[in-house]
Amino acid sequence: MNTETLMEDQNKLLHEVTQRDYRFGFVTDIETDTIIKGLNEEVIRIISAKKDEPEFMLEFRLKAYRRWLTMKMPEWAQLKIPEIDYQEIIFYAAPSQQAKYESLNEVDPELLRTFEKLGIPLEEQKMLSGVAVDAVIDSVSVKTTFKETLAERGIIFCSFSEAVKHHPDLIQKYLGMAVPYNDNYFAALNSAVFSDGSFVYIPKGTKCPMELSTYFRINAQNTGQFERTLIIADDDSYVSYLEGCTAPMRDENQLHAAVVEIIALDRAEVKYSTVQNWYPGDKNGKGGIFNFVTKRGVCKGISSKIRWNQVETGSAITWKYPSCILMGDNSVAEFNSVALTNNFQQADTGTKMIHIGKNTKSTIVSKGISAGHSSNSYRGLVRVSPKAENARNYSQCDSLLLGDTCGAHTFPYIEVANSSSIVEHEATTSKIGEDQIFYCNQRGISTEDAIGMIVNGYAREVINKLPMEFAVEAQKLLQISLEGSVG
Amino acid sequence: MAEVIDKITAVQRISDIYEANLSKISSGLPDYVNNSRRSALAAFRRMGIPGFKNENYKYTDLTRLFDNENFRRAFKTDEFDVDLKDVFSCDVPEFDTHLILVVNGWYDEKNNPNASHPEGIIIKSFQKAVVENRDLVEKYYGKIAKAEADPLTALNTAFAQDGLFIYIPDNTHISKPLQLINILRSEDDLYVTQRNLIIAGKNSQAKIMFCDHTLLPQNFIVNNITEFEIEEDAVIDIYSIQNQHNKTANLIGLYIRQQQNSHLVTNAVSLHGGIIRNNLNVLLDGEHAEAKICGLALSDKNQHVDNYTFIEHAKPNCQSDQLYKNILDDSSTGGFTGRIHVAPHAVKTQAYQRNNNVLLTNAAKMNTKPQLVIDNDDVKCSHGATVGRINEEALFYLQSRGINEKEARLMLMFAFAHEVLAEIKVDKLRDVIDKLVNKRLRGEVSKCHSCALDCIR
């Protein structure tokens, strides 16, 4: 696909999405196996027992739960979060037909239709697109594809519970390495109650031949989605991981507190791309997902590299800071983000770059777009420890405001304790220039199209970093719902 | 409470001091000042001692400072047997100022003969002004320095007794700068509360200098809050020079409200001081108000300098521009928090902010937190922050021209610092501060030639 058609596609897409309501609002009617709502040690024991987990997992969960009880909900974010009653949440929901499927025919047709509506390339499509999908519906991995192809190369790509069963040594070694059980309020909550997630292990010297992909979807009513992803890239390996999220339309707010951990060993490279499109609530700010996610990568080995790419368009409230700890010398980290908020959405998102090793480099590019009555904040930390000789960071945070009722905020934190390092940060806030729109109008482009074009150009720097296979998928999902906010 | 608390917390101790001395603190002051004390103390109790848990004090933890119980508080002015004018002389050649002395937070009547002040302008103690100029003070006292928002302001409001009151009438232009000298002088460790109120009338013009000095080597904590009202069309320059010894904690809160078409320049130069915390709050409350806000901090040893600014664009068409620089040596730490808030209807706002820092050693640490909070789309706002070192290429260039490395480094540092000093509009003053900064960078004692003050020990 050449760039011209890609841009055309993007334009078409932008236009499309500005014109429509939330497309993925439907409830799949599958029997789900849920437990009583509420949270206590008993619930955690039930979750652990249902998943047939070894003792160390239960220990981990209980330790996290006990710690969570002593913690308080963080209040520092530029967010107005309604009180969450944890006793009203069902902490575990899995599709009840848990039999292992050999072929697609055995899969609940309702479920397949859900995937179809989502446009997930399961089976034929995925063969063409070369995407291996580990689809997570309400926390239990239903079908993992391409497993055999990957297994040939020694790559492990499976659900978290399977990994606990078959690779307990790896789990025990790496679980909680990037995000300890006591890291923060939501990470502790996740560590206590997480139901499932994805696990990836790339062996030494292996380049993963395809993009690994997972879909998260919140389905059953009143269930929080607590999944946990762990990616381990051994020496000299490479993997690109894609994550897409949608949730059906619901009036109540739903809680989603996930944890993603990435470990990159010597010279390994991990690329993690997200398109987040949870239900953002309706035009009056009713309903929507609370997306409180802890994502962190550790560049543990020398010359390792971790790259976070994210397109955030959904969720009523987003609280998310994909971070990198640059431990290995010469390691490199990147964070590229587009965050769009409309109506009454709130987003407080950004990154943390912790430089510990020598000659470490990090780059942050963040593009915020706010419209309607939304509030969009960038919050990022760059820390250079005393031993991080010649560390280098460059951050650029731009905010685009559409309309005079929205807010765009920037809160960078820069902490430098090494004199040979160079840290730069710049941020601008602006609106779309009237002259730019006038120029487009003059050439016969409607204002709506012009804004689409300008927003597209503005976000392009980041969108271009998304993997090609994902780009088509991502573009369908990229819901830049600017409807009614411009004109 | 399951655990037994055997140590009285600093917050409790301060509350106890307040209760025990309430009658002394309140004596001679009218109800409108005293009535705000109780709620201010409650606000302080709620927020606690400023520390890293308070987002605004993330990089300045004062809990250890306040844990020290040895500080004396004076609830009436100490007697001084010397004429401070003899001890102190700010000898800036041909730099003539109206001197105002404040000692340990108390306006010193004896050393401030009223006759020398320019015509029409009122300069007196806060204690007197609250009674004698009630109409003015009541209108403005506690209006912009809100006790609920900041623990140090709350503490000050609860304990406020004296300080300085200045009123510059409408259309008054004062050509000679007003030089306010805050002196700390005590035989034992002292906690100082100072409350100032300054009102610049419509279309007035003045330049005001704050000089903070210590006379004796004791430990000091200074809790100084100033409310500054700038009326329409007024043009005000505020320069502050902080030059105290390293056992001083200088906690300054300056609240400024600007009306229509007013113009403000502030420039804070921090040379010496153990812990320096400058809270600068500027409320642009009238259209077309402009503010230029600068700061320079040179720190070494274990010094800690933290500049906090909060620029509130409440009305359309205002402009603000901030420039803050730090040079950090030895194991000093620096902090900068700059927040710009543009209110929903403050259209056509222009707000800029820049923070550049140079670290000279690996033990030095700089924390910077520039922030933009924008609630409106018709704005031009940007901020930039850098932390780095002396440019090696520039250093090489100078060396290749026969300048030795040490001198070349000093030249580059001085050039870096001078960008902030260049904003000082009083030529003579700029020259003096230039010299002080130059000396400071060379590690020499940075005081004026013939000043009797021995600031550095």
Defining traits:
heterodimer; A: 487 residues; alpha/beta; 34% strand; disordered C terminus; B: 457 residues; 10-stranded mixed beta sheet; 23% helix
Q: How many β-strand stretches of chain B?
A: 20
Contiguous low-pLDDT stretches of chain A (5 residues minimum) are 13-20, 96-102, 122-131, 138-143, 217-223, 478-487
Structural class of chain A: alpha/beta
Oligomer: heterodimer
Coarse structural class of chain B: alpha/beta
Write down the Rg of chain B: 22 Å
Order of strands, widest sheet of chain A: 4-3-7-9-12-14-17-20-22-24
What spatial form of chain B do the alpha-carbon principal axes imply? globular
Radius of gyration of chain A: 22 Å
Shape of chain A: globular
- Biggest chain-to-chain interface with counts: A-B, 36 and 37 residues
One letter per element, helices H and strands E, the order of chain B comes to HHHEHEEEHHHEEEEEEEEEEEEEEEEHHH
- How many angstroms does the end-to-end distance of chain B come to? 46 Å
Q: Could you tell me how far the N terminus lies from the C terminus of chain A, measured between alpha carbons in angstroms?
A: 32 Å
**What level of helicity do the residues of chain B show?**
10-25%
**What's the total number of strands of chain A?**
24
**Low-pLDDT residue intervals, each spanning 5 or more residues of chain B:** 448-457
Written description of the protein model:
- The complex is a heterodimer of chains A (487) and B (457).
- Chain A has one domain (27-433).
- Helix content of chain A is 25%, strand content 34%.
- Chain A has helices at residues 3-18, 41-50, 55-70, 109-118, 124-129, 147-152, 160-166, 168-174, 185-193, 434-442, 447-463, 468-477, and strands spanning 32-34, 93-95, 131-137, 140-144, 156-159, 198-202, 211-217, 228-233, 238-246, 253-256, 259-264, 269-277, 288-299, 305-312, 317-320, 323-326, 332-341, 346-349, 352-355, 361-371, 375-384, 392-402, 407-416, 422-431.
- With 457 residues, chain B is of the alpha/beta class.
- Chain B has one domain.
- In chain B, 23% of the residues lie in helices and 37% in strands.
- Chain B contains ten helices and 20 strands.
- In chain B, helix 2 (31-47) packs antiparallel against helix 7, helix 8 (392-400) packs across helix 9 (405-421) and helix 9 packs antiparallel against helix 10.
- Chain B starts with 9 loop residues before the first helix and ends in a 16-residue tail after the last helix.
